[in-house]
Design brief:
This protein has 191 residues and is of the alpha+beta class. Helix content is 25%, strand content 30%.
Length: 191
C-alpha cells in the first residue's frame, strides 16, 4: 500500500524542530532554517547586565520595554522570522502581533545578538535581515572576534558600515532607540 507523504513547509519544519529541540532557537532567515543551541552562562549574563543598564537608563519611563526571545517577523520572505537575544520595543508592542510569537518590525527600536556557535548569521545574514526590516539599531556582541558592532539608521534596506568597539570602551545606544544607555563592551562580551 502506498503512503502519501506531505512535504513540510519551512514554517511547519520550524515548528517541529522547536518542539523536538526545547531550549534551541529556531529561526528562518532568508528562506533558510537555522537552529542555535541554548545559550551558555556568559551569554545569558550579558543579557542580564544589558537589561540592568536599560533599567538604570529609565527605559520604562521613556515608554519602552525590553524583551528576550520574542520573535521578529521579517518582511523579506513570507515565512522568515528571527528571535533576537534582546530587543527594545515599544511599550504597546503586543498590539503589533503578526502570527505565532512574531511581532511586526515597526515596534522594535533595537535588537541585540550575542554571538554563539552560529556567529556568522549574527554578523552577516541578520545584518541584512534587520536592515531590510527597518530596525533602527542593531548591536552585535561578537564574542568570536572580541568586539561589539553597532549598526544604525538603515537607508534603502541597508545599514551603513558599523561602528566598532573594543574591550575597555563603552557603547552608547543611538538616540533612535529612545533612551540614553551606555554599555561596557567587556560586559557584553563576557557577561
Amino acid at each position: 500500500m502506498a503512503v502519501l507523504q506531505h512535504e513540510l513547509t519551512l514554517g511547519e519544519a520550524a515548528d517541529q524542530l522547536s518542539r523536538a529541540l526545547p531550549g534551541h532557537r529556531v529561526e528562518i532567515l532568508q528562506g533558510r532554517l537555522t537552529v542555535t543551541p541554548p545559550p551558555d552562562g556568559s551569554h545569558a549574563l550579558s543579557l542580564t547586565k544589558l537589561g540592568r543598564a536599560f533599567d538604570q537608563g529609565g527605559i520604562v519611563e521613556a515608554g519602552y520595554e525590553y524583551v528576550q526571545g520574542v520573535g521578529l517577523w521579517l518582511p523579506s520572505l513570507p515565512e522568515d522570522f528571527a528571535i533576537p537575544d534582546f530587543s527594545v520595543v515599544d511599550e504597546d508592542f503586543r498590539d503589533a502581533h503578526v502570527t505565532k510569537n512574531y511581532y511586526a518590525p515597526n515596534v522594535f527600536r533595537l535588537v541585540v545578538e550575542v554571538t554563539s556557535s552560529n556567529w556568522s548569521d549574527d554578523l552577516y545574514v541578520k545584518v541584512e535581515c534587520y536592515a531590510q526590516a527597518g530596525i533602527p539599531a542593531y548591536l552585535v556582541a561578537d564574542r568570536k572576534h572580541g568586539e561589539v558592532l553597532l549598526y544604525a539608521d538603515p537607508v534603502d534596506g541597508k545599514y551603513p558600515g558599523p561602528q566598532r568597539f573594543k574591550r575597555g570602551q563603552s557603547v552608547t545606544v543611538p538616540e533612535s532607540v529612545g533612551v540614553h544607555v551606555e554599555i561596557l563592551v567587556d560586559s557584553l562580551l563576557d557577561g
